[in-house]
Amino acid sequence: MDDVATKIIDILKKHMKEPRDDIGLSTALTDLKIESLDLAMIVFDIEDSFGIQIPYNANEEVEDFKTVGSVVDRVKALLENSGAPAKA
Amino acid sequence: MTQSKGERRRVVVTGVGAVTPIGLDARETWSSMREGRCGVGPIETFEIKDLYIHIAAEIKGFDPAKHVSSRKVQYGDRYSWFAARSAEEAWKQSGLPTPIADPYRAACIFGSGAGGFNTIETAYDDLFLKNKKATNPLTLLRIIGSSASAHIGIEQGIKGPTFATCSACSTATHAIAIGADYIRNGLVDVAVTGASEAVLTHGSLRTWQAMRVLSPEGCFPFSKKRNGTVLGEGAGALVLESLEHAQARGATILAELKGVGMSSDSKDMVNPDVEGPRSAMAFALADAGLKPEDIGYLNAHGTATALNDVNETNAIKMVFGEHAQKLPISSTKSMTGHLLGAGGAVEAIACIKALQDGWLPPTIGLDEPDPKCDLDYIPNVGRAAKVENVMSNSFAFGGLNAVLIFGKPPA
């Protein structure tokens, strides 16, 4: 796993009531028992850490937020568009 | 289980007033609702800067010098302007004298979810961006969440209980409920009740944006396409009186406030629970001494968030049973936007007007309902219907629920 993925997993673990060590790219966010407010906090943390803005809406089921890997891909795409270095 | 009491005085409404994105008074607001007019549009009253939410339901063309009669209130925050204007309209309609003859027998319970948010932002701007040495000396008084209630009390000469309620999107409904309780139990004869909200600022929108609950497109309650709520601003005021007080002075009675129900989910700050709304509606029915089938119209909380509209629909089904399928329901937030703390008062006024006019306001923007929202939401066009009793729901962040039931004036 690369730096972006590692960093995102660290952020996820920080916001979980019972952090797990078996989180991989294929892990579904629904399996992490993350509630909507936690997700808003996680997205904020990711935005803050990587210096990007993620247009996430809690009212919509978005493909980008299904698995850990999809979040990582989305963040990488936003980083490329913003011209920021991939390593946060 | 009920929250109703034994002997008590009946409470009636003798005046209403409103300032909303679809009307600078209650009359204009109601005629806009009849027309299905939408107050949501591109943000014009402040700079969007880096926001990605570009829409709101703003009150445009509001000039305190023109629309607020009191010089003292003109010095207040925008939320106090709306509050004072709506209260003055309601007071004038009630026909009560200014100042009121028996000032200690009147209450002013007038809330706000956020108080003087515009003032906070201006003050921070002055201090931290413009490096000014001091804030405007009126900053503190403008910010305080009870300044609107104090202003109204001063204007109408009210010397009884005067304070603000604060319960996010249930603020106004709780204020009305408390005013009604004071009258029922004989503490006062008259109460000005309601709430005001004016939080459309860049900083405020940033906080809402961070919660990820706003729609970038529009406020479409119960619709399949709904993707969040839209912030609005405004105020609503109701003058409540004991029935005998209103009758003794020959006042025109607009409606009776028959029932109040309050509850808390006691569960989560954002995710609503079905039990809280269900119990609040059931308590209101029991308090009014009515059966579910006695309710002819329900003004839903209907915020157009993914969670609320399904949860509220489920709670309505639990309370109303078979009658839920026949009960006309609408969310006037589709037209006003979400007035937050003030919403419950404006929606109570919509209920009272529906009773008076025999006409039910629509939920606009409802082309294709969410399959999980399968009741009659009066889609897009309002309709004529003679109703005897109406219910208004307010459910707030934190799971704070308050429900009112109004009926036609006593014969």
Walk me through this protein's architecture:
The complex is a heterodimer of chains A (88) and B (411). The two termini of chain A are 14 Å apart. Chain A has one domain (3-82): Orthogonal Bundle (Non-ribosomal Peptide Synthetase Peptidyl Carrier Protein, Chain A). Chain A is 49% helix and 0% strand. In chain A, helix 1 (3-15) packs antiparallel against helix 2 and helix 1 crosses helix 3 (68-82). Chain A is mainly α and 88 residues long. Chain A has 3 helices and no strands. Chain B is an alpha/beta fold and 411 residues long. Chain B is built from 14 helices and 14 strands. Chain B is globular and about 65 Å long. The model of chain B has no long low-confidence stretch (mean pLDDT 96). Chain B has 2 domains: 12-248, Thiolase/Chalcone synthase (Peroxisomal Thiolase, Chain A, domain 1, 3-Layer(aba) Sandwich), CATH 3.40.47; 260-407, Peroxisomal Thiolase, Chain A, domain 1 (3-Layer(aba) Sandwich), CATH 3.40.47.10. In chain B, helix 12 (306-320) links the parallel strand 9 and strand 10 (329-330). In chain B, helix 4 (78-94) runs parallel beside helix 7, helix 8 (171-184) crosses helix 14 (343-357) and helix 11 (275-288) crosses helix 12. In chain B, the strands form 3 sheets. Chain B has a 10-stranded mixed beta sheet with strand order 5-4-6-7-1-8-14-13-9-10, with helices on both faces. Classes of the chains: A mainly alpha (88), B alpha/beta (411). At the A-B interface, helix 2 of A face loops of B.
